Each structure stands twice: as structure tokens, then as C-alpha cells.
Amino acid sequence: MKTTDTQKHIDALRPPVVVVMGHIDHGKSTLLDYIRETKIAEGEAGGITQHMSAYEVLHKAKDEKEHKVTFIDTPGHEAFQALRMRGARVADVAILVVSAEDGVKPQTLEALKCIQEQKIPYIVAINKIDKPSANVERTRQSLAENEIYVEGYGGNVPVVAISAKTGEGVGELLDMVFLVSELAELKASHSGKAEGIVIESNLDPKKGVSATLIIKNGTLKKGEFLAAGESFAPVRIMEDFLGKKIDEATFSSPVKIIGWDKLVKAGSEFKTYDTKNEALAYVAKEAADAKVLEKQTEAKNKADALAAALQAATDGSGEITTIPLIVKADTSGSLEAIIYEIGKIKAERVSIQIIEEAVGSIGEGDVRLASANKNTIIVGFNTKIDTPAKNLADRDDVKINVFDIIYKLTDWLKEIIKERTPKVLVDEITGTSKIMRIFSKTKDKQIIGGKVENGFLIVGEMIKVMRRESEIGTGRVRGLQSQKRDTDEVKEGSEFGAMVESKIEIAPGDRLVSFRTVEK
Length: 520
Hints:
There is one protein chain. By secondary structure, the chain is an alpha+beta fold.
């Protein structure tokens, strides 16, 4: 039976979407820099890719034809786990970058877990072979030790040795990408409405809300309407990954849509409609579902807070200080990563309560909200503080700090927690002594003889009187002698005579546990 042009149109091979993953400094961004012949990595804060980005490139393969491929760069820092997972969910093929100097690292395994959970084929790129200390065989062994079995080393995972700096092996790596994608038989339809995944969104003070999408099927055209989660946008301004305005885009292409009614949640699936009403109906349903989930989450948070308060009352950990926090970031992906990282900060007597989280610059509204509670802190990530907001914060003494590297933000928060942790009185044991003789007793003062078993005994310190492992009373050391000389301190292993002030009658065989009360 003859295949019609319409069938070819509907069932077409589509270019692969490739995610590049791996440890924080094993060269993911440098590899992409070489592939697209730009220099993004050198200008990144702290050398870390802070956002997920998508790029479309052409590669002339062994068949002498140019093939299109979309690359997704994902951050390496552990805080961006959600972004990496999203990248793996969008992608058809993954490149797991491993340094020929360092071998497998914890974030390598994290990235691999993302790839395996999404069940996508992957290629291992052993990078930095240009370095003097590079050892490809040792790296293959490191991979095998972590149950990553590459070709020629007990497994069937393709592996290519490369230098992202010089370009050696990069062409072979791209050829392998196309071979793996061909085996996967990636197919999509040019006809039909576009659908795919939102990988990032942000708020520009001049342009408004924009979102970067990866189209997985269909064709997106100007004049249509988009819906993603609780957000809606008419397709009026559409740009390719270079920022060039375009009228339509098809599968595997990364595109930016400007003009959403509200910030789009990164990771949302988007759908396309002919009419505004159809798109808004989808958004309304998503919003209703989200409200149900929000109520369930709110109830759980209240239950968790109550449980924490009850636990503090039970175990004696005392007063819990709450630090209200306002978080602003440049993109939704960054915001998601920061919230995830802040959630990992644990403190016994301090609780961080995020009262507002949003994308955009820090404005007067944020400062006014913070002013309602003098303990509130505002943190920003890769965002600006509006001048009126800064002036108001200075006047109202609101603490604001902005960061461009995520671990610096969390380190600063940990210092704030340390400063604001309520002080509690704690008994620190300084030593134990065994009572050997009782020489005399006058009212509440007793002259005793004993030996320091561990630690030391000091004049003026409090003591607990222990009898058969039970505390029977307390007292204080008022005087000490050792080798018939007055002293302020007797150390471990030494015998002593002491005047102890206590209402409890001490007996031979009792033990004195000396302690000092300190504030922590």
C-alpha cells in the first residue's frame, strides 16, 4: 500500500531533545559552549549554571547531512534536583558527563538516578581528556564500581572520550547521539496543536511574564492560545532560542512565549487551543484542582507545626523561634530550587516559615509585608531591589540580602538561624569522683575524702550526688585539698579532701558528678 504525503506529514521522525547532566564542575556547560560555539560558562556566577537553558544546533553527521538537535543544559548543584529531573523528563537522550580526572561523584549518581527514573537512553561522555592527570581507564573503572557499565567494560552503555575544551571527540559524541535517537525511533506530527513542557519562566519588568517551552508534538503558530497549569497566553510574541521573532515552531524546538497572564510553573505541560475560551476553560479546571491540593497541603503544614510544638514541649527543647521569610528569584526554576534547599535546613529551636515566594524584583510590597513582623527577612536570588523598596527597607530596618550563588544564600540563612536560636541553660559535666570517707558533718557542710575518676573537680562548681546510679541531691564544692595543700582544682586520678555544701548526707561509695551550667 502506497504511503500518502499526509501520512508522512503526520508520522515524521523528529530531532532529538538531549539533556546534558553530571557533576557540578565536570564540564557540561563547556561542552555546550563548544557545540554552539559560544562562551556562556566563563561569564556564569561562580562557574555554576544557575538556570536550565535550551539550545538548537545543526550537526553534519557521517551521512554528510545536517541534523537538528536541541540541547538542554541543567545545573549541577544539588539544589537544582527538580530542574535536572524536569530536564530528563523533557529529553529523549541524555549525555552523562564524567571527568577523566575525578571519576564518578555524588552528583553524577544523582543525575544518573534522574535519567533512569525517566527511562531514557544515555551516553557517557568522559570529559577533560586533555588534562595531564586524565585517566580514561581509571574513569571507566570508577563507572563500573558505581554500577555504570559502559561498552567494552561489561555493559552496553555507549561511551565517548572527549575534551570539551579542545573539541576532541565531540563530533563522535554527536554522531552517537543521532545513532541512539535513531534506534529510539522518535516520531511526532507536524499537524495538530503543539504540546510539550514548560522548562523555565521568568518575569521581566518591561516585557512581562515569559516562558521557555520545548515542543514535543505538533506545530505552534501565532494567533493560537496556550494554557499551562493556571497560566494562559495568547501566542503574539514568539521567539526562538536566539531571541529572533518567529511566526511558528514545530516539535523539538525551544521557544519563548511572551505575554502570559501570570507566572508559569516550570515543569507544567502546555496545550494549544484555537480560541481563548477553550484555553481559559482548561486553566480554570487546573486552578480548581490546585486549590484542592493547596488546602490539603495547608492542613498538613498546620499538623506538622502542631506536632513540632508538642515535641518541643515534651522533650524540653523549649521555645521555638519562627523566622518569617520572603523569597524572590529571577525565574521559577531558581525559586523552586531555593525553596527545596531552604527546606533542607533544620534547626532544633528555630523554624523558617516562607510567607511569600515569587519571581521578580524585590519591591515595596515585599518590604511592607516584612515590616508587619520585625523578624521577617527578605532574600533574593539573581534579582534586583527596587529603589523605593530599598529606601523603605532602610527606614523600617528590614533585612534584605541578594545572592547570585545558591549555597551562599543558604550559608547566610544558617548564620541568621544561629544568631536567632533561643539560648537555653545546659548542664555540662566536668568530672566524676568516688567518695571514700566522710570526716565530719556540720549542718549542711560536710568534709569528705575521695578520688577523681575522670575529668576534674573545681572549687565553686555544682555537684550532683549519685547513689546506685540515682541522683539523690545536689550541692557545691566550697574547698579542696590535695596532698595536704589547698588547691582550686583536682585532676583525674588524684585523691582529695573537700568541703561540700549540701543538704543531702553523703555516704562512702556515693559519686559526685561535677557540672557547670552554660548557655547554648
